[in-house]
Amino acid sequence: MNTLLFLLQKEFLQIFRNKVMLRIIIALPLIQLIILPQAADFEIKNIMIAVVDHDHSIYSQHLVKKITASGYFKLTSMSESYPSAFEEIESDKADLILEIPNGFERNLSRENVQSLFVVVNAINGVKANVGGAYLGRIISEFNQEIRLDWVVPQRVNAFPTIDVRTQNWFNPDMNYDLFMVPGILVFLVSMVGTYMCALNIVKEKEVGTIEQINVTPIRKYQFILGKLIPFLVIGIFVFSVGLFAVARIMYGITPLGSYVLIYSYLFVFLIAVLGVGLLISTYSATQQQAMSLAFFFLMIFILMGGLFTSIDSMPEWAKWITYLNPLAYFIDVMRLVVMKGSGFAQIQYHFYVMIGFAVVLNTWAVLNYKKTS
Amino acid sequence: MKLFFSFIKKEFFHVFRDKKTLLLLFGLPIAQILLFGFALTNEIKNTQIMILDEAKDLASQRVIEKLGQSAHFDIAQEVYTREEIERVFQEGKVKLAVIFPVGFNHDLQHLKTAQIQLIADAADPNTANTLTVYASAIIGEYQQELMPIDAVFMQIQTELHLLYNPELKGATNFVPGVMAMILLLVCVLMTSVSIVKEKEMGTMEVLLVSPFNPLMVIVSKAIPYLVLSIVNLTMILILSVTLLDMPIKGSLGLLYAESILLIITALALGLLISNVTNSQQIAMLVSLMGMLLPTLLFSGFMFPIENMPLILQVISNAVPAKWYYIIVKSIMIKGLGFMSIWKETLILLGMTTFLLVMSLKKFKIRLE
């Protein structure tokens, strides 16, 4: 026990001595937490639409007015020819083209059917999909309106209509920060943990001081605990500042669920993530190697963690990778507890998995750490 | 000149001797481009939904059937009370509840109007929004089916054309973005660290007192990474075309030229970082922790830049990956020529010059 205390003292001294480093570890994540959630707004609005109106009729003008009034679309131009509208798609000025053919109004009233042409830039699939769906809805509403103008009321009533009522639970204001801030906080904390832990040990290897430790009677587990605990403390500290100072004061986010639950999960999670760092360090000889490995895993953790893109939409094999990603669980837990007030019963599965991660990763790291090379 | 070449040779030895780093240098980008190319998508499909069917009649069965057939939805479970809905939402798997009130079919047939309630888990506002749009569209289709055929009049049909990406694949959007991220981050990291390492180990002093121009020392350090990155780029392109079916519609030469420009921008940034820091750890922290998320967010492939607050839109202009992402999209997917991207190229060129001048200014021949 005494040995461990001395080791801890040494580690903390080393960490606090390096002022530049300390400032970076704490400031960098917090600054990012303040700025980045505002950039991560994926709501589909401001869809740029270019209209090519060959008809110039009352109907076509009506339709265009309806589209611009909907709030989803911004009219970039009313052009006369398709090629000039297409140029706007090429230069990314427009996302959609609506082409109203000549004789739109006439054909509708005489032949009872008429097509409209919609061209979508589909590089970003969602924007294309959602933009197309919005536009489709507006067009069919417009369709209903012009029918109503024409038809005797009784006949309209003959059509059965379904009234769709929508409710948005847990986040009725559709506030995107509420969704992003807890997730980004998780990522930043794990970044601090994994990097610092991996680099710290490898540095001892590179500088050669690890040899000095290896020849002392310090046990493997003592050495590893000595490295783990300081970063655990730093991780909890950064997380708390993020949760209370940034999330609560800046974004006004207060968790619906219990703090005890969040912190106990954080504790287990940090041990698991630090385990990743330890494991990386036992497999690398130089800081450069450790860093490339950590970079690799963090990229996967962040992109396969459900932070920005939904896990449900991934192919089956990719879902299996997300099952091995500790971040995916914690991001999920944070969102559940913070936004929905889920209790232990609802997230117990997440808990057991994370405990499993923590045990396996750290045992692996201890076994793989060799005192003699 | 001969001296210069021998320096470059030395640097190549350094790089090739460290087999592990080399493996990582090549293995990581390949693994990542494949993983993300196949797995990442902004699309919403197979989302689990729950049904509360209080009506249990023909009409509700038909709507449920239609919902189940859609690729967007996956009917995960049926619930029987409204209290259950909240509990299921709290577990986090199911994102949408569809409720049919008692007498749905009856109301529809006799009162000519009936109600369906959609309750979305708006924890993720985007998904909630998109899901309700999709579900309403499906319900609308059912409503069309109910109309007698002779009643169809003044029908506006919409013909939808999907440009560039008719299958709506995620890869088309993500590959250029991931390419920009990987090239940029790997280069910045590797150059900054390799120079700072010499400082940390003390070998930098040896190099600086040699009769060789100290600037050349730095340049020769960057060259191996330039070469490696070009090899990396080639591999990424081959994989994207063969396995991910990405098109390269524009000129390959232009794509290479622009990519080399980005690599040089990254090298210049790496040099600047290495000139202002003294330890590998700090160099890494700045180039990774400082750059990973901003590059991801501000390049515009994850989140639309036009949605951001104005100040962040301004900041995003300073991220080289943003410009490169626009360039790659234009060349690979849209097949545009240099005339359409000269502005972006000029901006990247300007950034590179600025970074190089800055790092030259900060470059010190003497170490403290």
Number of helices of chain A: 15
Sheet with most strands: strand arrangement of chain A = 2-1-3-4
**Overall average residue pLDDT of chain A:** 84
Helix count, DSSP H or I runs of 4 or more residues of chain B:
15
> Total number of β-strand segments of chain A?
5
Largest interface: A-B, 121 and 120 residues
Order of helices and strands of chain B: HHEHEHEHEHEHHHHHHHHH
Largest beta sheet of chain B, briefly?
Answer: 4 strands, mixed
Distance between the termini of chain A: 26 Å
- Rg of chain A, rounded, reads 29 Å
The largest sheet of chain A is: 4 strands, mixed
* Overall spatial form of chain A: elongated
Can you describe this structure?
The complex is a heterodimer of chains A (373) and B (368). Chain A has helices spanning 2-17, 19-39, 58-69, 82-90, 104-111, 125-150, 153-157, 176-207, 209-214, 220-250, 259-283, 287-303, 316-323, 326-340, 344-368; strands spanning 47-53, 73-79, 96-100, 113-121, 161-169. Chain A has 373 residues and is of the alpha/beta class. A four-stranded mixed sheet of chain A has the order 2-1-3-4, sandwiched between helices. In chain A, β1, α3 (58-69) and β2 (73-79) form a beta-alpha-beta unit. In chain A, α1 (2-17) crosses α10 (220-250), α11 (259-283) runs antiparallel to α14 (326-340) and α14 (326-340) packs antiparallel against α15. Chain B starts with a helix and ends in a 6-residue tail after the last helix. In chain B, α7 runs antiparallel to α11 and α7 packs antiparallel against α14. Chain B has a four-stranded mixed sheet with strand order 2-1-3-4, sandwiched between helices. The longest helix of chain B has 32 residues, at 170-201. With 368 residues, chain B is α/β, with parallel strands linked by helices. Chain B is elongated and about 95 Å long. Chain B is built from 15 helices and five strands. Chains A and B meet through α2, β4, α6, β5 and α8 of A and α2, α4, β4, α6 and β5 of B. β5 of chain A pairs parallel with β4 of chain B.
